[in-house]
Amino acid sequence: MQAVLASLPRGKTLPPRVWARRHRTLVWLVWAHAVALPLFGLTQGYGISHVTLDGLPVAVFAAAAMLPGRSQRFRASMVSMGLLTASAILVHLWDGHIEAHFHFFVMVTILATYEEWLPYLLAVAYVVLHHGTVGVFESSSAYNHAAAVEDPWKWAGIHGAFIVALCVANVVGWRMNEDLRDDMRLSEERFRNAFEEAPIGMAIVNASGAFVRVNSSFSTTTGYPLDELVGMRMAQLVPQDAQEEYRQTWASPDQGELERRFVRADGSMGWGLWQRTTASDGQFLLQCLDISDRKQAQEQLELQATADALTGVPNRPRFLELLQETITIWTPAGRKIAVLFLDLDDFKIINDSLGHGAGDRLLTETARRLERVLRPGDSLARFGGDEFTICLGDIADEEHALRITERLLGVLRPPVVLDGERRYLTASVGLTLTGRTDAEPEELLRDADAAMYRAKELGKARCEVFDDSMRKRAVERLELETSMRGALEREELRLVYQPKVELTGERIVGVEALLRWDHPTHGTIPPLKFIPLAEQSGLIVPIGAWVVQEACRTAARWQKEFGRDDLLIAVNLSPRQLGSTELVDVVRDALTDTGLAPSTLCLEVTESALMADVAAARETLHELKALGVRVAVDDFGVGHASLKQLKQLLPVDMLKIDKSFVDGLTTDVEDRAIIEAVIILAASLGLDTVAEGVEHADQADALRDLHCQLAQGYHFSRPVTPDAISALLDAEPSLSPGQVVADDAARDAGDVTL
Question: Distances from the Cα of 696 to the Cαs of 171, 510, 678, 714, in angstroms?
């Protein structure tokens, strides 16, 4: 029984708007019967009063079915009563003809469209009761054949059986409709859930381009509230400059996925991956995947490929493209183009003293300043580090280019505030010009770079214009650097030594090791020419390690051979070596391998190298002092060290007075005063002093009067070979100053350091 009941329709499952639409139709059908039946009665010969009374109940039921305050069940029942009453009146007016009874079947079927049990069962009961009761009391009004008149209930049952059969068909169809609606409802629910909960934006758009329905993801993507989106036209999300593209795109058939911009509620621009699927009713489903982040990342990658990540200005590849474009534009018109290679002076000091963060801020500020004074059409790029390049178009001549360069250098002169301190910025610039239409960007950069290095060599903070001699020097510098990479293995490097004497007795107390390079093609190359190359390329680190090892080995031999355990050997350290993490190990290994007493090794470091990074230098010096070696500050007085910084660098053991002060010792009162102040300062700090570049006897006498302890220079001896030093040490008691001289190569090289 439960299975049977479960198989029956539930009833009352029509959506409200569908029920209302069907009810309105059936009410008008009742009203139509209320009018048509009296007219039909008149044609059958009935009087006006009779037919009016016949039509009145139908009209009453129609009116009752329209009462707004009554329930759906009541109003449907009134329609049922009205239609079945109309069937009964039709049978009556037609004198019980069998054809009139078919009206009952039609009305019962029509009432099944309510899909409600009460009005339907009411109709079935009405048919059975009508045929039975009317057949008994007035059989001629219900039937027109003798058998029915004789047994009206039998024929009522027969008609009822037909109704039941009809009901079965109606109920089956009714149940099928309910099942179909259930399926549609589930499908709609699934679609709604998928639509509402979809991770991408979805919207249903009507044929006029207005949003009919949108999900929350679409609202989130566009920034508009849901209620504001509904009714909004899709074109309102399209940027103004893309309206025509929008019209062309959406006017054509579905085109698959399209990447298009859209305007958010806050006015910002986003990117979406759009797809349109057109439905049969003219509406279409619009899907939008927000790809703004992907587009931003893509744009960032494209920017990184063509722009410097720190400053935002073009990078090297992009600059070469811009330079080629400038050549193509201006040289055919008879104008020149200029390329500037700009390198910030002493930028490493900023990085080492204030940190890379301050250095980055300085580079960014430099780029902003240069951009502000560039002419329209000129290009600025950063090549990395502290190097910038500038391309100038529409240049008349060299003087024109130099005026622009001076303006660029001038904008860098105002101080930059870094970490609360004012820092002054200068730059060295190399300039090259060309009017050739076939000029190669790489060649122009190479020439500007060579001119920039020349500006560095001539004192920095200046501009140099490229000429052929610079190219020759650049090629020579490249050849020297290439040759230098194998100089150690080919045993082309050697050391010469310059004695240090005690001024009171002019006794040799030490020697300074100086590096020489005997090139197989170019002969002896001056240190001032190859040491900077070694420093820039990093070769100075392995070369410097060899110098320490070789000098310690030679000094140990002298000490043993001549019984001079106190003989001091001095070795110069470059700034690159001082910053190397291997320096302490190199010195320790050299002392261990040669057996040299640490106290007889003096490491000389220039004042400028120490001041480049005071904290790191102090740490390295303390580690070296822990080995027992001595430390000297070379070229003291020509740098920028303050007394406070000098105190921080202690323990150093010796100050070396620069040759530039010694040159004016006997002729310049100020130089003499500076030397005297340095000697007094050193004595107060417990340090020894060494005067460099002593070339005349009167200079030695003056230093002796000022109580300077040690000196070195041509007055005593030029830099000489190890054998010559051996001869000096061997013959020291019988030699007078200057008696031993250097060979010609050493004399030409002069007094230079590593």
Answer: 133, 20, 21, 8
Q: Which two tokens stand for residue 42?
A: 């008149």
Antiparallel, parallel or unpaired: β 336-344 and 427-434: antiparallel
Separation CA 546–CA 487 (nearest Å): 12
Structure tokens that stand for 141 in this block: 């009004």
- Dist. CA 580–CA 43, nearest whole Å: 125
Q: How far is CA 495 from the centre of its chain?
A: 52
Question: What does the alpha-carbon distance between residue 589 and residue 594 come to, in Å, rounded to a whole number?
Answer: 8
Question: What pLDDT does 375 receive?
Answer: 92
Predicted local confidence at residue 711, as pLDDT: 94
- What CA–CA distance (Å, rounded) separates 460 from 215? 66
Q: Is 341 helix (H, G, I), strand (E, B) or coil?
A: strand
**Distance between CA 62 and CA 573 in Å, rounded?**
116
Name the residue among 665, 630, 651 with its Cα closest to residue 500. Answer: 630
Determine if the peptide bond prior to 651 is cis (ω within 30°): yes
pLDDT 10s digits, 615-646: 777 888 889 999 999 999 887 766 545 555 55
Type of residue found at 84: L
Give the gyration radius of the chain's Cα atoms: 54
Q: What is the end-to-end Cα distance of the chain in Å, rounded?
A: 112
234-249 core/surface letters (b: 16 or more CB in 10 A; e: else): beebbeeeeeeebeee
Burial of 193 (0-12, 13-18, 19+ CB in 10 A): exposed
Whole-structure pTM value: 0.51
The C-alpha atoms of residue 420 and residue 417 are separated, in whole angstroms, by: 6
DSSP state of 365: H
Q: Residue 315 and residue 323: Cα distance in Å, rounded?
A: 12
pLDDT digits (tens, 9 = 90+) for 413-437: 999 888 777 888 899 999 999 999 9
**C-alpha to C-alpha distance for 726 and 712, rounded to whole angstroms:** 17
